[in-house]
Amino acid sequence: xxxxxSFGKSDVGxxxxxxxxxxxxxxxxxxxxxxDGMGGPASGEVASRIFADTALEIFSSNSExxxxxxxxxxxxxxxxxxxxxxxxxxxxxxxxxMGCTAEVITFYSEGYVAGHVGDSRTYLLREGKFRQISKDxxxxxxxxxxxxxxxxxxxxxxxxHVILRAVGVKxxxxxxxxxxxxxxxxxxxxxxxxxTDMLEDxxxxxxxxxxxxxxxxADRLIDLAKAAGGKDNITVALCEVIAS
Length: 244
Description:
alpha+beta, globular, 10 strands, Phosphatase 2c, domain 1, 5-stranded antiparallel sheet
């Protein structure tokens, strides 16, 4: 059986007055989550916090869980968060339009299950190779898939931040569930778009390859994102698989 170590950090960035991102890392419960709030300063913070709190509630209540049960638990995190955010928005007009993009990953003895909605991202570094395992739910990604634009046009596209899915916006929420095996040495990165808007994947890859611990890697990523402009809140959660 493998052991998971993790570290998370969030920074307000250089342009925002408040932080609407939320993260939670609980290696003792075998999960991590990142949520990026939207819908205004107060509402965005509320939505992302609801998501993180719901993830903690569900995984705390199901600490003894099998591989077969994990996809359902990940789905439950998103669906219950979705219901709670919608309910609060309906009860208080000040929260109208709030929601969040979100990533969750949870581990079992030989693998992982991840959940994804929006344009926050989950990446995997394995044996030196770095790849995005989530797929953005955005207008730009949709245009890329259809061949209407090229990858080099996507980064600064006028519709870059128009997302097609978010938690807490519609009652019918489609969640991407991603499953795979783990290997000792794997590093998973969950992050808000405050990181990926500022840094190319190659820059992130380079940092994760450095001989640093997870805290130092998180610090380095956030420092580089701020040096590149820090236009949004920046949140990273790193999970590393080590042999027990």
